[in-house]
Write a structure and sequence with these properties.
Blueprint lengths: L2 E5 L4 H12 L3 E6 L16 E5 L14 E4 L6 H6 L1 H8 L1 H13 L2 E7 L26 H21 L3 E6 L2 E2 L10 H10 L4 E4 L5 E3 L1 E2 H12 L6 E4 L4 E3 H12 L5 E4 L14 H7 L7 H14 L1
Parallel strand pairs: 1-2, 1-4, 2-3, 4-5, 5-6, 6-11, 7-10, 8-13
Antiparallel strand pairs: 9-12
Helix pairs in contact: 1-7, 3-4, 3-5, 4-5, 6-8, 6-10, 8-10
The structure holds uridine-5'-diphosphate (UDP).
């Protein structure tokens, strides 16, 4: 039985990963300081599962042998990371250093959860992995973007210098059950506003684009990458691109809400476009998303209704 340590395992993506890997027969150690994660997300997991409440920016000690480390701990919603920029920078820098050190000690395979935010406000669309990005280091998003860029650089350095088997996944907008109702991101905002017949708050004119990947598709891709021999970054996301205005209309239709649309100020440095070029994941991992936006959003609406 292989053991996997998942940092951020009580978070949105982390908890889905814990569940998935337990089903695949792994022993799972979930590490989280619950700063944005929630114990409710993992309370149903017990067999072959251990939870450690720990801040990964501090030294990590684990007794068990570990075969894989999946470093997913970080605030990820713009609202969250702008509230706690120092913790965000520490999770990406010190947290990455500590987990890489642990991987070296345990001879574990290492997977870094990176982000489409490494591309900043991209000047090319869609974004291939070869694009270097357009990031404002001192802007309000800099704490997350630069932490993740540093995390990638450190991960690659451990691969080059220490020959550690490392993987980097650049995650594009992902959604699904267990997102926090008030995490501030567009999917929980629009769905909950619609369910409460409150206005849908579009930032700017809603002409900016995003593409939304359902969480089960992402987890499937992470698993394929973790078992692969790829060491270079791989984009994962859904390449179906929508403007935020189109997305609001889709939510209105699927929830059958009476909500109106309200236009608010566009936040600083909000990327104008974002869409993953997933040719690499397709070619090298045989991965592409399978869940349609309609099906994924319907499942998410049901989950928010029940919770
Ligand atoms: N957005 C919006 N209304 C909201 C929340 C977000 O129009 O209530 C927009 C936001 O300005 C951005 C896009 O939706 O252009 C996606 O925002 P989110 O916070 O989900 O994540 P991001 O992709 O910016 O990291």
């Amino acid at each position: 039985m292989k053991t996997v340590l998942i940092t951020g395992g009580a978070g949105f993506i982390g908890s889905h990963l814990c569940e998935f890997l337990l089903e695949k027969g792994f022993k799972v150690i979930c590490m989280d300081n619950l700063i944005t994660g929630n114990e409710d997300n993992i309370k149903h997991l017990n067999k072959n599962f251990k939870f450690i409440n720990h801040d990964i920016s501090k030294e990590i000690k684990v007794k068990e042998d570990i075969d894989y480390i999946l470093h997913f701990a970080s605030p990820a919603s713009p609202v969250d990371y702008q509230k706690i920029p120092i913790q965000t920078l520490k999770a990406g820098s010190l947290g990455t250093h500590n987990t890489l050190g642990l991987a070296l000690k345990k001879k574990a395979i290492y997977v870094l959860a990176s982000t489409s935010e490494v591309y900043g406000d991209p000047l090319i669309n869609p974004q291939p992995e070869s694009y270097w990005g357009n990031v404002n280091p001192i802007g309000v998003r800099g704490c997350y973007d630069e932490a993740k860029r540093f995390a990638e650089a450190l991960t690659v350095a451990y691969h080059r210098i220490h020959k550690l088997d490392t993987k980097i996944i650049r995650i594009f907008n992902t959604y699904g059950p267990r997102m926090r109702k008030y995490d501030g991101r567009v999917v929980p905002n629009f769905i909950n506003q619609a369910l409460e017949n409150k206005p849908l708050t579009i930032y700017g004119k809603g002409k900016q684009t995003r593409s939304f990947c359902y969480v089960s598709d992402l987890v499937d891709g992470i698993y394929k990458l973790m078992l692969s021999d790829i060491n270079e970054p791989v984009n994962m996301g859904n390449p179906e691109e929508h403007t935020v205005l189109e997305f609001a209309e889709i939510i209105k239709k699927l929830t059958k809400t009476k909500s109106k649309i309200e236009f608010n100020e566009l936040p600083e440095d909000d990327p104008h476009v974002r869409c993953p070029d997933i040719s690499k994941a397709k070619k090298e991992l045989g991965w592409e998303p399978k869940v349609s936006l309609k099906d994924g959003i319907n499942k998410t609406i049901e989950w928010f209704k029940e919770n």
